[in-house]
Amino acid sequence: MAETLYFRAEELTRYATAMFLSVGMSEADAALIAGDLVKANLRGVDSHGVSRIPMYLERLRRGLVNPRPDVKVTKVAGAVAAVDGDNGMGFIASNIAMNAACDIAGEMGIGLAGVNRSTHFGMGACYALRAIERGFISMIFTNSSPAIPMWGGRTTFLGASPIAAGIPGGKHPPYVMDMAMTVIARGKIRLAAMKGDPIAEGLALDIDGNPTTDAAKAFEGVCLPFGGVKGSVLATLMDLMSGVLTGANFGGDVKSLYFDHSEPQNVGHLFFAIKPDLFLSLDDFGARMDEFYERIKVLPRAAGVDEIMMPGEPEQRREDERHRIGIPVTDNVIADLTAEGASVGIAFPDGRATPFGTA
């Protein structure tokens, strides 16, 4: 069983920023990526948090990712922008693209930004939350390296290709959705493999096509799509919209973030932004969102359910909690980050054995 220490978000953010600065990134870009990684940890999405730093740094050091990309935004139609990520970290181009889509939507009512020559962009919910902060509805598509088969196939072809979306609330929490097309996010299988933990049955196959609960074998093998054929069909949509449409790699050509260091990934993303007051006033929209929220709270609950929540509400509560008690990080991740920092003279912070606020 992995041991855990607790860290303040600010400590991890400072460490992560320093690590990205060590490979030549700008202060602003290093801080952006560090903030998004720690945001994932705060929301309980530890598979997309600081544990990914060594993997990102390796790709930067190998020259597969440009530490100082010249991201270009080109208006290609009235409500559409094309974003060239210049093979930089996906966080950078995606932040620019989400803001570009919101800017266009502010003028046109709806905005779309397509990105190519990008890389893994972290937790998709970050972009939905940014759009919500600006008052916009959003949808975020991405493709990714092969992780699941086309329906009927036995080899990886489609990416886990998560979809995210956000809808501003009124006085109650907003709707925030972020999910992969696999039964479980591939990053969570990776995290289990790092800890030496098993995974549940029905999540993955090994490289020989056999069901496995061994996380390491699963990570090297095939993830299974959620909902059977439905998950495979949605992953196909993500690849066609994010890859084929944008000019990025597609159809099995996105290079593995984990195993393939032969060339840049060329991931594609698509960002939609929509003004929430297109069909009614903003006040009416907020009131209707509040009414929806209040209705779900009084629905009859299934056995064992204490409360029905809006998508994104559990993660927000986890974020609030981790701001209070600290972010738990397991010893294997601490060891990796400590070694990574030592290689460039950056100390990993000392953790606390018990949550903050306790004796």
Automatic annotation (TrEMBL):
The keyword Endoplasmic reticulum does not apply. Pfam families: Ldh_2 (PF02615). It comes from the Bacteria. InterPro entries: Mal/L-sulf/L-lact_DH-like_ah (IPR043144), Mal/L-sulf/L-lact_DH-like_NADP (IPR043143), Mal/L-sulfo/L-lacto_DH-like_sf (IPR036111), Malate/L-lactate_DH-like (IPR003767). GO terms for molecular function: oxidoreductase activity. Coiled coil: none annotated. The keyword Nucleus does not apply. Keywords: Oxidoreductase. Belongs to the LDH2/MDH2 oxidoreductase family. This is Ldh family oxidoreductase.
